[in-house]
Amino acid sequence: MTQQVFVTRQFPGEVAGPLEAAGYRVQQWTKALPPPRDVMLREAAATVGILCSLTERIDAEVIAAAPDLRVISTFAVGVDNIELSAATARGIPVGHTPGVLTEASADLAFALLMAAARRIVEGADYVRAGHWKTWGPQLLLGQEVHGATLGILGMGRIGQAMARRAQGFEMRVLYHSRSRDEAAEAKIGAQWVDFPTLLRESDFLSLHVPLTEATYHLIGAAELAQMKPTAILINTARGPVVDSAALYAALRAGRLAYAALDVTDPEPISMDDLLLTLENCLVVPHIGSAGVATRHHMARIMVENLLAGLRGERLPYCANPEVYA
Ligand code: GLV
Known about the structure:
By secondary structure, the chain is an alpha/beta fold. The chain has two domains: 4-100 and 292-324, 3-Layer(aba) Sandwich (Rossmann fold); 102-283, Rossmann fold (3-Layer(aba) Sandwich). The protein has helices spanning 16-21, 37-45, 60-64, 84-89, 102-117, 120-128, 157-168, 182-188, 195-201, 221-226, 244-252, 292-310; strands at 4-7, 25-28, 49-52, 71-74, 94-95, 149-153, 172-176, 190-192, 204-207, 232-235, 258-261, 281-283. A seven-stranded parallel β-sheet has the order 8-7-6-9-10-11-12, sandwiched between helices. The protein has a five-stranded parallel β-sheet with strand order 2-1-3-4-5. It is globular. Glyoxylic acid (GLV) binds next to loops.
């Protein structure tokens, strides 16, 4: 019987073609919203491979429901939606797409930094609302980007790409990460500091850590209290890295100037979320890697990972390499 691959979303580029050419039957969920849990469990039961996105929770229950599952491949670098330990325990490799989305993600983080500093969205809203009656010497004054201090939390690929962008603006770049990368420091002109120093000295704090137990609510009330009241927080990592109730309180009280968020907790953000009532909070819908070429490249890698796994070969980009140990 032809083996089934379950494709949870409509990904860009050629996805079904290469899978069918390799002899698999493609079962694709084509609705705009992700497959509901019962569909996920039902399809998993009949599936040898899953192509998914960050909106699907592939946990131990889904993996247990899929006796024939040989490979999971996600359209993302982050794998916090996948219970890696459950996959590894079953010997199932998990593919992801690091590298190809680094530049697009750093572009978006830097765009949020600029938009927040120079109040771009407030300005656009002001014009659309018909408030622009004259040029004003005090109108929409924002913060200087050039020469300011950028703090980067997490100096992986995207953190480094952010630092490179900051160099062009002659920013002072500080970073904090678990391990110090002296080679990268020299290359990108960034200085390692401890976490309290990063919080205290950053004019812009940009988050580039994965979501793990250790990074859950890493930025909470105590951390926000150490930041400058003029500081701007940029989160393009994962929503739960920030305690959003604490963020709301700090923004509301003027203890933090502005937050620009590409990610929220939960996603999508609830329309009742108090963050959406604040003028000093900009939220965009998780579009970090959303460049046309980047998304096509991600889709190609996702398919390559899946096909390699189905052939029993090592995945080109594997998030749980311990599966090969
Ligand atoms: C996007 O957030 C990703 O992890 O690729």
